[in-house]
Amino acid sequence: MQIKRVVITGMGSVSPFGNDVKALMDGIEHGRSAVRLMEGWDKYKGLRSHVAAPAEIQDERKIPRNKRRFMGRMSIFSAQAAEQALADAGISTADIPQLKIGCAIGSTMGSAKSINDAFEIMLPEKDISQLNSSMFFQCMSHTAAANVAQYLELEGYIMATSAACASSLHAIGAGYDLVRLGRQDIMLCGGAEEVHPTVTGSFDVLMATSAGFNNDPSKTPRPFDRDRDGLVCGEGSGVIVLEDYERAVSRNAMIYAEIIGYSTNGNGSHVSQSNKDSMVKCMQQALSDAGITKHEIDYINAHATATLQGDKEEAEAIKEVFGSSVPVSSLKGYIGHTLGASGAIELIASLQMMQKGVIYPTLNLENISPECMGIDHVMSPVTKKIDTILKNCFAFGGINAALVCRKL
Amino acid sequence: MTEKEIIEKTNKVFEEFFEIESERLKPEAHIFSDLGLDSLDIVDLVVALQKSFGINIRNEDKIRDIRTLQDVYQFIFLIKNAEGIKDS
Hints:
The complex is a heterodimer of chains A (408) and B (88). Chain A is an alpha/beta fold and 408 residues long.
């Protein structure tokens, strides 16, 4: 069997900065924070963190009601991101029936708002008769993948990768293999997630959220910073188009980059505590899969969510593999942690940086924490020729993922 | 409840829940072929009508016979009428 080369030919995103890739990059380029104080979150007893980076649903009525009724927020985000990505790749929806095309869209869970709404309707009287027919389809774990597939009428592989914060990198990894093996010609891959007090609450009970900046939201999260105090949830979706290289070339498609390496592993030690050694192994395996040395990486887009332990472990892992020779930044300071969407949204931003030849800094990184030192933190925009990048994602559940992309 | 009130309330359900323009809501309109509802929408129609009229119709077999908007009006009218007789 001939292993095919896999390239990225399209991208789309809905993020806290707006509903396309341009809005995402405008926000990052101008050093803005999308983090806000969330109205009404103070009503949740025990919730310490009241900040988040919400996205705004726009133009949802363009999605026909008969498709939209099964979509919670996250599915609307992912349907719009997927549609953008397809258009960006120059693939018409009219061509879909003739293509071997599928999708892999990951998320931590189904629509958080819909799940919450369903239980609020059902539990007080233990009465299921008031639930509408679309609720299940909004709540199910594969809601984003299923809705993207239904909306775009895809008939190929439809997969939902659920691995918390590594979900969308897993989706891209799965799509990479499917195209590599020739099982699909094109895969729409990415992830989606929603902001909801119950989502932030799940991190809050673990003391992993930022709770000290409710009065100054734009100052948090603070990846790698001395004063970081935890993550801030964000929402949205990122979707990229993976395509067989030969096919992309034959139709003169614009190629953003080639995926040349991918790895995922378990830390084998703890469900929530990040582990440096397994991160090192994951990054080394991705480099090995790509067949390149550490010296060929020009930029590392870190996972770095601003948790005390996670940032420390990642910084130490990067230091062990790369030393201080490769620029590193995290985008969580701009758009929060978009969880299952973060791998795809941040990869899209990294590919845009590659195109532009500029590395954007880690927002809110003012004083590097002593335990995060020893790597090349980007603290102001850096102009640099970027040929090869590494994108990290490290998830609750003890799951790591790393992806290597190269400009052609 | 008058027939006019039933028609207005029912039409409101079709406008709000199913996003159907008021001018399409004609009594003879077939709810599947003309108004575009499907079998899953009927579940939602039942939930919406229950909420709107304060009735419980989930287990009513006659729901299966509904084809047109007029059938919906008639169905609700019979339910409300039966309620009225029971109350009196």
